[in-house]
Amino acid sequence: xxxxxxxxxxxxDYAVQRDQLHGVRHAVFVDEQRVPAELEIDALDPLSxxxxxxxxEGHAIxxxxxxxxQRIGRMAVRADWRGRGVGDALLRxxxxxxKLRGWGDVTLHAxxxxxxxYARNGFLAEGTPFEEAGIAHQTxxxxxxxxxxxxxxVQASAAAATVxxxxxxxxxxxxxxTDGLLSQPPVLAALRxxxxxxxxxxxxxxxxxxxxxxxxxxLVALAQRLPSVFQLREPVDPMDCQVVSAAISxxxxxxxxxxxxxxxxxxxxxxxxxxxxxxxELFQRIWQRSRTCSALRVLGI
Length: 301
Fold this sequence. Notes:
Layout: E1 2-3, E2 7-12, H1 14-32, H2 37-40, E3 49-55, E4 60-67, E5 71-77, H3 86-100, E6 105-111, H4 115-119, E7 124-132, E8 135-143, E9 148-150, H5 153-166, E10 170-175, H6 185-196, E11 202-207, H7 209-212, H8 217-225, E12 230-234, H9 238-241, E13 246-250, E14 255-258, E15 266-269, H10 273-289, E16 291-292, H11 296-299
Parallel strand pairs: 5-6, 10-11, 11-12
Antiparallel strand pairs: 1-2, 2-3, 3-4, 4-5, 6-8, 7-8, 9-15, 10-13, 12-16, 13-14, 14-15
Keywords: Acyltransferase, Transferase
Pfam family, one: DUF7931
GO molecular function: acyltransferase activity, transferring groups other than amino-acyl groups
């Protein structure tokens, strides 16, 4: 069982909770999205692992399932509970169930409007969109037993948003180059959510002066508005200035690492504290030797 604010998520017995599960799914898929009722229930339901979210009064507000073919599906949250973390909580439990089974990865078919939601939870898009039950979908995959290869800006945006989204209190960004990653809407949205959340947090940015003016205006404005959250330093030690790698890491054991920081290609490590610790130690060594960016006065920070 995963308790959260105002609701909880648990793995349930399909035979026992069948009505509650289908009640949520019918309200979302059939009533809202006009999916034919006969498609909402299928032969995989009795064979799948089901999760259910309930509010403080025990009313079902969200549902999802994990099928034997290693796919997450039937993710549904009632309209009045959307945007309150129910979907994230359902997905966390489903991914945890897949890990318990020793699966190397897990896939899903995301409705196109939900791609950013799954992307910030570590799922990368594969192939081209397709139609399912009359609705456009995208196949997405998350690896569970190692690093995910990041090869283009779309995947990089998803990787960065995931690390930011999963951060608890601390976020570290070691930047190189002017690839435009931080100007991507999913990345900026994740930074904004993290920085404005109601808890103590910090964002430490290591940025070379040559790259400073490439910071997107939206990020600069956010840092100006929240100077107690954002700290920016510039490497000055000759050895530190020669470091060519870049990374975004958090205090949850997640890291998007780029061996050549000016290039977008790299690896996304999720729930990998040992691997992330290596990057964190490098970051902190450079951070302690760095200085507050003098050019920030020009930017007004």
